[in-house]
Amino acid sequence: MWEQIRSNQTRSIILVAAMGLLLLLFGYFLGVALFGSGVGGLIVALVVWVIMSLIAYFQGDSIILSISGARKISRDDHPRLYNAVEEMKIASGLGKMPDIYIIDDPALNAFATGRDPNRASVAITSGLLQKLNRDELQGVIGHEISHIKNRDVLLMALCSVLLGTIVILAWFASRMMLFGGMRGNRRSSSSGGGAALLIIVVAILLMILAPIAAQLIYFAISRKREYLADASSALYTRYPEGLASALEKLAGSTTEVKSANQALAPMYTVNPFRSGGRAASDLTSTHPPISERIRILRSMAGGASLAAYDKAYREVSRSGSGVMPASALAGVPAVAARKPEAVEPEAEKVERTRETSDLLWKFSDYGLVNCECGTKLRVPPKFRGDSIRCPHCGRVNPLPPRQKSVS
Asked: Are the C-beta atoms of residues 258 and 107 closer than 8 Å to each other?
């Protein structure tokens, strides 16, 4: 596994270097076009990149979780989710339990963030918690835990910063050109001839193409790592069908994540965007085709090892090369997939919906009172009074001190 991780990291470093080179090239030509100094453009690009990288490294996870509207929970808030994360943490060998967050969003998705395994978090949408059974939830959590284990989260954060820097520079450059920022350069072009004009044309082309190229590189990094995360999830859970079934539900959802944006899209389990209210398409640039990911997981022929995934990948993609390097597969013992758990009773489906909605009410500072008749009474945060009457049985229930007479 470590060899596979190193192989992925090497390929990612090459792609990140390509993004960095694109940024420097972009800065140089913009400097020539706008200030008449390529070195000046390089310095501006580097300064913006360094500042944004430092922010991303030290506060990137907090910013992403805040943008997503994620709320941190404890074991008591949602025991089923906490246990699933704890099991995958043990199976993966992570040294520290990731923090767990819930996003109040009916869409089905999840992501991991953090600069290293000691400061990592997993965020799940409430829609996902309500729709997935235990095996499916384990599969998604295993996928996200593998991103932490494989150091994908920091890499993706730094890549998103590179992409953001190029987009910001392109935006400012376009405004400066529109509002006369090229006056000085026009003076030099009148005296410098065709060479200066050529530089301006190259700068304009880079301003248009650089953000697109950087985004394509960013997405390429993301796609390569999704296969390894799927393979790792199958290994951790020893039940590839769990993730396959979860992906099927995520693909069928027509609801997109409200707080998602283009820079964060590759961090999610599947593309968070939907086109015209339709289900997730296979023609997505941020992730491998979902149908292919499902077919690979279901073609593992009773195995749960990386070798079984690699063989299934070759069969499904009809590719001569696998997704894992041969060195990572040599001498790896076979791992048999476990049998599925019993079919989930209908009552448990209702209960998991109820436990998630109770947590969301709690996020909104609603109190919860359990009446003896079995009714759960939700008390608004501004409710005035010492007791509340049950609308079903008429019993008067006293309120805990926290819920009394809020003024």
From this structure: yes
Residue 174 to residue 203: CA distance in whole angstroms:
10
> In angstroms, rounded to a whole number, what is the distance separating the alpha carbons of residues 192 and 138?
65
Give me 309's structure tokens. 């995934």
pLDDT on residue 406: 40
Contacts of 371 (CB under 8 A, 6+ apart): 377, 390, 392, 393, 395, 397
The catalytic residue among 136, 144, 226, 241 is: 144
More confident residue, 172 or 282: 172
For 363-380, what is each residue's pLDDT tens digit? 888 888 888 888 888 888
The answer to whether 346 is a known catalytic residue is no
200 contacts: CB under 8 Å, gap ≥ 6 = 33, 182, 185, 189
How much is the pLDDT for 193?
58
